[in-house]
From TrEMBL:
NCBIfam families on file: DapE-ArgE, PRK13013.1
Cofactors demanded by this protein: Co(2+); Zn(2+)
One Pfam family from the record: Peptidase_M20
Alphabetized UniProt keyword annotations: Cobalt, Hydrolase, Metal-binding, Zinc
Annotated organism of origin: Primorskyibacter flagellatus
UniProt domain Peptidase M20 dimerisation: residue ranges: 197-320
The protein's name: Succinyl-diaminopimelate desuccinylase
InterPro entries hit by this protein: ArgE/DapE, Bact_exopeptidase_dim_dom, Peptidase_M20, Peptidase_M20_dimer, Peptidase_M20A
Database matches in Gene3D superfamilies: 3.30.70.360, Zn peptidases
Single GO MF annotation: hydrolase activity
Keyword Metal-binding: yes
Length: 429
């Protein structure tokens, strides 16, 4: 390291306790999505913190976005601090929402407990630890580095866990990324990895149709659930084996995600569930509708039209064999795969910072699922974007989720050294 790099790294080490307490404070604001709770509270918290650090802040409500309502408004914060001279803009983006807690916790999901060098809680790994690391990295950079140019931006955005439409997508549509040059998203892909992008996703709802009749005389009706069973059987026999043969050259992790995958996200047939404490039994009827939601993840080598055609081919083969079989299919969501080039400026910069901090080369990976890079790429028209942050990917959405303090310190050092390389004073010849 140069002397300035070493002083910057040491400054972040000295802020270790502040990094821990900031992460704990963020975890203790339960920003559950769905439905989208406490978004304004966490944005107000970040607003107070970043104003003290000299940032100009904006709170932006994504009015009209999916899920936005007076009860659950979709709030975002965007903070910007300009340097003393002209230069490029580096933007750190983190989502503020977390998924449902689920069962199996041995710690308080919103307690932010510090134990054995780890901070526990829902969102610790995914991704409030990364958000805290980016804030501390920027603040340390401002304290140590003189004569820097350009701008630093930090955003906390809504709804990444449900597609990001009330967060990054909305901001991109409003032009917030028009003057940004580099984006780092501190998602938990492991501290020695740079994530270049993600696979594609296509969600669809398939409905099989039948005819209602009395349950004691099913021969007078047509059971939509049985039709759906035939669809599932055809998928098992033909679609799943075909997907297992599709492989990618993308460096997707984990290994199983290097192939195309399909998940049956939900399945429902017949009458709606009886809510507890209900009375009596469901009425005896033949179900005239069955619905299935599928989550198809596809590779950069695949064409989206062929992805859809494969599923429709399953339905058409079933239709050819089953009398009175009828179906409908509705697209719910689509995102094309994206992958930043390894030679992009943000990639080479973060690579050098990892080498300086950790003493080794990073691994370059692609995420099995999507994150907000999709909107920065597709809507914001900015390819120079990576995901890099603390945390172990496998812990995301799990009980007893945690983030390691050492990883947060190291990733904050990497982010700060990246700022130094992109915005700092020119090095002496």
């Amino acid at each position: 390291m140069t002397d300035l790099q070493a002083r910057l790294a040491a400054e972040i080490t000295a802020r270790r306790d502040d990094l821990i307490s900031l992460t704990q404070d963020l975890i203790r604001i339960p920003t559950l999505n769905p439905p989208g709770e406490n978004y304004r509270e966490i944005c107000d918290y970040l607003d107070r913190r970043l104003l003290r650090s000299g940032f100009h802040t904006q709170l932006v409500r994504a009015v009209g976005s999916p899920g936005d309502s007076d009860r659950y408004p979709r709030w975002n914060i965007v903070a910007r601090r300009a340097g003393a001279r002209a230069g490029e803009c580096v933007h750190f983006n983190s989502h503020i929402d977390v998924v449902d807690v689920g069962r199996g916790w041995t710690t308080d999901p919103f307690g932010g407990e510090l134990k054995d060098g780890k901070v526990y809680g829902r969102g610790a790994c995914d991704m409030k630890g990364g958000l805290a690391a980016s804030v501390v990295a920027a603040e340390a950079f401002l304290a140590v580095v003189p004569d820097w140019g350009g701008a630093i931006e930090i955003s906390g955005t809504a709804d990444e866990e449900s597609g990001g439409f009330g967060g990054v997508a909305y901001l991109a549509e409003q032009g917030f990324y028009a003057k940004v040059d580099h984006v780092i998203i501190p998602e938990p892909l492991n501290v020695d990895r740079i994530c270049l992008g993600h696979r594609g996703v296509w969600w669809a709802e398939i409905e099989t149709h039948g005819e209602i009749a009395h349950g004691s005389m099913p021969f007078l009706g047509d059971c939509a659930v049985r039709h759906m069973g035939a669809v599932l059987h055809e998928m098992e026999e033909t679609l799943f084996p075909a997907l297992a043969l599709k492989r990618t050259d993308m460096p997707v992790v984990p290994e199983g995600a290097k192939q195309s995958t399909l998940n049956i996200n939900s399945l429902h047939g017949g009458q709606d569930e009886i809510l507890k404490p209900g009375t009596g039994l469901p009425s005896p009827v033949v179900p005239d509708s069955a619905r299935m939601v599928i989550d198809r993840r596809f590779l950069i080598e695949e064409d989206i039209d062929k992805v859809q055609a494969e599923v429709r081919g399953v339905l058409e083969r079933v239709k050819a064999r089953r009398p009175d079989f009828d179906y409908s299919m509705r697209e719910m969501h689509r995102v094309l795969p994206t992958m930043t080039d390894r030679g992009a400026p943000v990639v080479t910069t973060v690579t050098e910072a990892i080498r300086a901090t950790l003493g080794r080369d990073p691994d370059y990976v692609v995420s099995p699922g999507t994150y907000d890079q999709k909107h920065i790429d597709r809507i914001g028209k900015l390819k120079n974007c990576v995901a890099y942050g603390p945390g172990i990917l496998d812990l995301a959405h799990k009980p007893d989720e945690y983030v390691g303090v050492d990883d947060m310190v190291a990733s904050a050092q990497v982010m700060a050294l990246s700022l130094l390389s992109l915005l700092g004073p020119p090095r002496n010849p």
